[in-house]
């Protein structure tokens, strides 16, 4: 009780300092939570985009970005005839633009692609998908392009007939457009080429065999299970690393803030520490007062930061311009990691001050004032 | 000197043997070979001009500081390790200073409980002891007061209570009434002597006040870092 009061009264005595430290921690935590959650959401969205109705993905080996991967049509045709393969779908990714919308993801796909089947058709149907110049819009793309089924829409250097509008659960797809593969190949000058091929096998136990066969038949290609792909795709790695690096920088700043505060705190409390010493406090008891103060600030800061983060994510999720792109569901493990890291940061930041406090010599400290 | 000690059947409670203390690598000599031996139950006054080293000697005796040369024996044992010195501070030695050295944000009661927290004594036992001491020093009705609201005499009495919380055998008092007016000083000192007597505590007190010093059983004069009995 009195132990806690020693901690608490010191925090209260320096309210502004406490508030600033708390705010530093809170904003670090909020930034970390928001950035990590949003990027994880984006990664999740992108990987679900690949894995629609499939369990493996085939793409060009040693490629860092799927937009630059090339899988020849003839490989797609061949692989789809393999007995173990139930379904093989080529997808060509492209970026198109239209007035005021510089980045629209375009998916060149077959008409039997699971994507078209799994989606909710708001208007039109998949039947006319293969007619020339046809295009299907994601719900949000239809919104911002202000186009409806049956109308004509100008995208990039072409004009297309909208044959349907569909709603998916994926932000990228909802904000994207779908073209028949051949049309997309022509539009992007990538005749005879897809970016990736998504695969569904007859038997899940044949993943290994399939990989081996792809390796043997097409040394320039590689097949990965969706799980594996998510882990190894370098763009995801970069995104995740960036998220955690931004978060770590935030935490570092928070930790420095705590260190600074605790050093100030110890300096202004030398007399108090000396008094505790004279009354029999041990090194570890002195350290506990200092570390306890840091831990308390860190934990309260973390909780406040999480609240700010939740509000920020909620706000982003409901910002019309970002609608569908922010798929931010906050993971419990992320919260646990952040709380843990904050606590460790707080304690680390207080280590030097605690060491300093332990070295306070009571006689000298009590001689003055 | 140690020969004499071992020859004595009764070990002194606290002993300083040939204590030297200097600061700034010897440039400021403060204690120049002090020998002091105090038996259990004695009351000793240290008198001497300002700067002669009274506080320094008390700090050494209470193992708040280490001598440059010589040694301090508590119950015949030298406290070498820091854990031994800490345990001495927790259980054997109580300090009262000229300034009360109480924690301003805590109440009277909380201040007094600090030594028992340090020593890991249960709150219940600590409260029993606190009430006993606070009752005897007339502080019980002020127990919930913040230190700022106490008078100088009350603060000094609180400091006395705190020093005695863990029933030390030795009380080291460094001008315990030096900050008080004459009347209050006399009252607080009266109380101190009363507690020392009833609890059988050994007292070593530094003071400028000859009248107070005269009430101790022994008086030692200090001058330029030397002790004259
Ligand atoms: N850390 C230190 N560094 C240098 N000199 C010191 C230090 N501590 C004490 N001194 C010196 O040691 C001498 C003795 O100090 P001490 O406090 O023991 O005297 P005192 O007899 O208690 O005096 P007073 O009656 O004024 O309290 C003083 O001259 C003081 O300046
Ligand atoms: Mg002194």
Keywords:
heterodimer; A: about 375 residues; alpha+beta; 2 domains; 14 helices; 12 strands; elongated; B: about 230 residues; alpha/beta; Rossmann fold; 6-stranded mixed β-sheet; 10 strands; about 40% helix; disordered N terminus; binds magnesium ion
CATH homologous superfamily designation of chain B: P-loop containing nucleotide triphosphate hydrolases
Query: Which residue ranges of chain A are poorly predicted, with pLDDT under 50 across at least 5 consecutive positions?
Result: none
Largest interface, C-beta within 8 A: A-B, 25 and 27 residues
The CATH topology annotation of chain B reads as Rossmann fold
Helix content of chain A: 55-70%
- Number of extended strands of chain A: 12
**Element order, helices and strands of chain B?**
HEEEHEEHEHHHEHEHEE
Question: Tell me, what's the shape of chain B?
Answer: globular
Alpha-beta classification of chain A? alpha+beta
Kindly state the mean pLDDT of chain B as a whole number?
90
Structural class of chain B: alpha/beta
**Biggest sheet features of chain B:** 6 strands, mixed
Structure description:
The complex is a heterodimer of chains A (369) and B (229). Chain A has 14 helices and twelve strands. By secondary structure, chain A is an alpha+beta fold. Chain A has two domains: 2-46 and 236-365, no CATH class; 62-219, no CATH class. In chain A, strands 1, 3, 4, 5, 6, 7, 8, 9, 11 and 12 form a ten-stranded mixed β-sheet that branches. In chain A, β7 and β8 (158-167) form a beta hairpin. In chain A, α10 (234-268) packs parallel to α13 (332-358) and α12 runs antiparallel to α13. By secondary structure, chain B is of the alpha/beta class. Chain B has a single domain, classed as Rossmann fold (3-Layer(aba) Sandwich), CATH 3.40.50.300. Helices cover 38% and strands 25% of the residues of chain B. Chain B has eight helices and ten strands. Chain B has helices at residues 2-7, 54-61, 82-92, 108-119, 123-136, 152-164, 182-199, 210-213; strands at 14-23, 28-38, 43-47, 69-74, 77-78, 93-96, 170-174, 202-206, 218-223, 226-228. Chain B has a six-stranded mixed β-sheet. Chain B has a four-stranded antiparallel β-sheet with strand order 2-1-4-5, with helices on one face. Chain B is globular and about 45 Å long. The relative contact order of chain B is 0.19. Chains A and B meet through α1, α11 and α14 of A and α3 and α4 of B. The complex binds adenosine-5'-triphosphate and magnesium ion. Residues 23-24, 28, 30, 50-56 of chain B line the site of adenosine-5'-triphosphate.
């Amino acid at each position: 009780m009195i132990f806690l009061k020693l901690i608490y009264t010191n925090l209260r005595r320096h309210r502004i300092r406490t508030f600033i430290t708390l705010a530093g921690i809170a904003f670090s935590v909020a930034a970390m939570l928001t950035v990590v959650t949003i990027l994880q959401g984006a990664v999740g969205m992108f990987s679900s985009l690949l894995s629609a109705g499939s369990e493996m993905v085939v793409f060009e080996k040693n490629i860092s970005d799927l937009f630059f991967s090339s899988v020849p049509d003839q490989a797609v045709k061949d692989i789809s005839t393999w007995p173990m393969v139930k379904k093989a779908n080529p997808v060509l990714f492209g970026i198109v633009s239209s007035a005021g919308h510089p980045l629209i993801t375009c998916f060149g796909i077959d008409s039997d692609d699971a994507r078209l089947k799994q989606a909710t058709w708001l208007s039109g149907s998949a039947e006319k998908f293969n007619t020339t110049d046809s295009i299907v819009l994601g719900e949000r793309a239809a919104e911002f392009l202000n186009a409806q089924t049956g109308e004509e829409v100008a995208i990039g250097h072409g004009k297309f007939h909208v044959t349907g509008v569909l709603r998916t659960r994926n932000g990228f797809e909802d904000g994207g457009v779908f073209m028949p593969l051949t049309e997309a190949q022509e539009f992007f000058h990538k005749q005879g080429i897809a970016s990736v091929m998504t695969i569904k096998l007859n038997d899940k136990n044949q993943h290994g065999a399939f990989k081996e066969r792809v390796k043997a038949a097409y040394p320039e290609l590689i097949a990965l299970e969706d799980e594996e792909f998510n882990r190894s795709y370098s763009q995801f790695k970069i995104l995740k690393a960036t998220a955690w690096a931004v978060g770590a920088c935030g935490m570092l700043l928070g930790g420095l803030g705590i260190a600074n505060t605790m050093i100030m705190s110890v300096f202004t409390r030398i007399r108090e520490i000396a008094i505790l010493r004279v009354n029999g406090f041990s090194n570890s008891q002195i350290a506990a007062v200092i570390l306890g103060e840091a831990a308390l600030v860190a934990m309260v800061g973390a909780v406040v930061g999480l609240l700010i983060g939740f509000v920020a994510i909620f706000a982003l999720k409901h910002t019309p311009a970002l609608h569908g792109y922010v798929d931010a569901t906050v993971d419990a493990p992320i919260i646990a990691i952040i709380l843990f890291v904050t606590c460790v940061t707080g304690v680390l930041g207080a280590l030097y001050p605690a060491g300093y406090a332990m070295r306070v010599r009571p006689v000298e400290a009590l001689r003055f004032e | 000197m140690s020969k004499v000690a071992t020859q004595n059947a009764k070990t002194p409670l606290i002993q300083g043997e040939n204590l030297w203390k200097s600061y700034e690598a010897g440039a400021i000599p403060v204690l120049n070979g002090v020998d002091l031996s105090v038996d259990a139950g004695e009351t000793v006054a240290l008198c001497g001009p300002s700067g002669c080293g009274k506080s320094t000697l008390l700090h050494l005796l209470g193992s708040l500081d280490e001598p440059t040369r010589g040694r301090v024996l508590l119950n015949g044992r030298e406290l070498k390790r820091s854990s031994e010195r800490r345990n001495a501070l927790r259980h054997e030695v109580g300090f009262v200073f000229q300034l009360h050295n109480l924690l301003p944000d805590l109440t009277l009661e909380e201040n007094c409980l600090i030594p028992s927290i340090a020593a890991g004594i249960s709150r219940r036992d600590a409260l029993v002891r606190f009430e006993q001491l606070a009752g005897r020093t007339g502080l019980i009705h002020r127990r919930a007061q913040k230190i700022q609201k106490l008078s100088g005499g009350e603060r000094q009495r609180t400091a006395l209570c705190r020093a005695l919380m863990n029933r030390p055998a030795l009380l080291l008092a460094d001008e315990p009434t030096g900050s008080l007016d004459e009347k209050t000083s006399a009252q607080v000192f009266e109380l101190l002597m009363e507690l020392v007597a009833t609890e059988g505590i050994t007292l070593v007190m530094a003071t400028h006040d000859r009248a107070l010093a005269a009430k101790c059983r022994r008086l030692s004069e200090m001058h330029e870092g030397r002790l004259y009995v």
